[in-house]
Structure formats: C-alpha cells, structure tokens
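Need a sequence for this fold. Nothing fancy.
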C-alpha cells in the first residue's frame, strides 16, 4: 500500500504552522486506532488522506508517531511521508538505491498492515470477547465456566472427542466441570504456543505476547509446547511459561492473587511498575504508553481497583517519582518525574 503523498503535490519552502489542539486530538485518535489495529486497508488510506489535507495534520501525527516509537516501536508512516512531500529532496537517488527503498517500503507497509489487521480480525470474529475494562463469565455446554479478562477473546470447539478452547488473546480463568469418562473428552486450552490440558481442575491461561502463562489453582494441568517436544504436569500453586518449542521450569506463585482480577482487583506484591502498567493498560480505554527501561527500578505493592485505571494512575503518581501526562482521554504517557 502506498502511503506517500500524491506525486502532483508540489514542494514548498514555506514554514509549517503549529497544529492547533483539535488537530492534535484528531492525530491522537488516528494513532490510537492505528496502534490498536483497528484500521483496515480503507482506514489506512483515510489516515493517509487526513495527513495530506493539511501540513499541520502531518506534523501533529509525525510528532505522535515519534512519541509512540519511543515506547513500542511503532514505525513512522503516513505522517512522516506527507511531511517529506512538502520539502524538496536534497538530490536525486540513484536508480538502484531508489528501487531498494521502494521495495523496502512496500514490504514494510504490507507487512505492518497484515500484522495489524489479522489479530484484530480474529478478535472481532471470536465466539466470545471482551472490550477494555470488561470481564465476562460464560457457561459452556458441559457446564464448565470461562471467565474472560479485559481485552480477551476465545473460540469454543466442543466435539465428540474433545472440549477445546482457543485463546486468541488476553487471559481466561477456567473452571472445568466434572463429566463422566473425561478421558474420552479431554478439556484443553490452546494457544499458538501450546496446550494446557485439564486433569480435573481450575486454572488460568494468559497470552502475554512472549508466551503462554499457565497458573494452576486447583488439581493439575498438563502443559505441552506446540511442537509436542516438551510437557509438564503442574500442581496447585505452580506457574509455567509455554512457548512453541518448550515448557519452562515451574515457579511457585500465589495462584489466588494471580486470579484477583476476577474480583476486579490488582494485588501487587513488590511488582515492577511496568508490570502494573501492563495490567492497567488492559483495562484503560485508548492507549497507555511508557518506557519499561526508564521505569525498571520502580516497584509497587498494594491493592488497586482495575475498574478505575485513571484513579490508580493518580495514586501511583502521588506515591512514586513518576509523571502521568494525559494528552487526551485516549492517550496517557507515564514517564520518570523531572528532578
């Protein structure tokens, strides 16, 4: 997809005026939707057109793209290209260099577009899903129950020989119902990393972006990597991380605290601040941005209400050397306080 400005736009040497507040608000809205993967191909074209309508649009968006890139690597896109179109190039590129640049740009845009759209399509087509700040409990045909955390999505596949839950994103608590001859219809939660099969139990499964975390509250669970090469049976109070080729070593954990989100609480016991912000970001509408490396030395203990993440941010700001900047209701940035 070509995100550069149209070729008939003429470069100008006139300085670009500063964007006003409504333009900044519009840029935040576009970048929030882009970062959340909510823009399909037509949406990306509409964003490009908006960037090209006014140099101030492009300037506001470019500054936000640069800000976001500091926190999560969002690649500068239409805004930067629209601004580039307003200033003449220093010199003509050699044909071979131009071809390499165009090829890289095409690969980048198509790759980023597909990456952004496919997970979002899976989310919207899921059997059950939750929005930001929402928790939901679902009773399955065998009377097992699933509790979905905020921003989670699952598909349910009940067939003659199996009971399978596909966790597409987020986190779930599973309460498995007792049935006759469970060996003939095993219950399992699957992700791209592997499988967590119930051995008559209650457990958590979470896709954290770096693997699948399985935490056992009651009975036992067998965790198996996607390639089948690694497998472990977990006891209550144990947690492992499953990746496509391995099941990590079990860790002891307070499983009930791990499940405190089902009661709308985040219980932090000397938890890294960035991990606390990860949880708040799941519950807060819009985008919460922060640099994990800058906050690495800060840790948090306490009990926080997940249903009011902005109030938690205020509490954290009062207790820690951090600054919370609200650019709009959709965008908040947490950074170290200026000494």
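Here you go.
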């Amino acid at each position: 997809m070509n995100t550069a400005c149209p070729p008939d736009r003429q470069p100008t040497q006139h300085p670009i005026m500063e964007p006003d507040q409504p333009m900044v608000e519009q840029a935040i809205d576009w970048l929030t939707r882009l970062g959340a993967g909510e823009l399909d191909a037509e949406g990306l074209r509409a964003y490009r057109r908006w960037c090209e309508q006014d140099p101030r649009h492009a300037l506001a968006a470019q500054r936000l793209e640069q800000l976001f890139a500091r926190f999560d690597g969002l690649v500068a896109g239409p805004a930067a290209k629209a601004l580039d179109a307003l200033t003449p190039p220093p010199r003509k590129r050699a044909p071979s260099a131009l071809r390499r640049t165009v090829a890289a740009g095409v690969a980048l845009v198509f790759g980023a577009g597909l990456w952004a759209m496919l997970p979002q399509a899976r989310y919207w087509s899921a059997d059950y899903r939750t929005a930001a700040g929402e928790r939901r409990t679902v009773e399955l045909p065998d009377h097992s129950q699933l509790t979905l955390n905020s921003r989670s999505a699952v598909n349910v596949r009940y067939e003659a020989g199996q009971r399978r839950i596909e966790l597409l994103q987020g986190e779930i608590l599973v309460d498995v119902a007792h049935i006759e001859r469970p060996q003939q219809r095993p219950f399992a939660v699957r992700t791209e990393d592997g499988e967590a099969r119930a051995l008559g139990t209650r457990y958590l499964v979470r896709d954290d972006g770096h693997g699948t975390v399985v935490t056992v509250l009651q009975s036992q669970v067998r965790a198996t990597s996607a390639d089948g090469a690694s497998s472990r049976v977990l006891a209550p109070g144990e947690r492992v991380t499953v990746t496509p080729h391995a099941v990590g070593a079990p860790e002891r954990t307070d499983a009930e605290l791990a499940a405190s989100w089902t009661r709308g609480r985040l219980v932090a016991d000397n938890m890294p601040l960035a991990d606390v912000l990860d949880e708040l970001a799941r519950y807060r509408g819009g985008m919460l941005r922060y640099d994990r490396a800058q906050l690495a030395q800060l840790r948090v203990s306490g009990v926080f209400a997940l249903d009011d993440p902005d109030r938690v941010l205020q509490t954290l700001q009062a207790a820690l050397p951090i600054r919370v900047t609200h650019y709009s209701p959709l965008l908040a940035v947490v950074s170290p306080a200026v000494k």
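For context: The helical segments are 21-35, 41-53, 55-72, 78-84, 95-124, 255-258, 273-283, 309-319.
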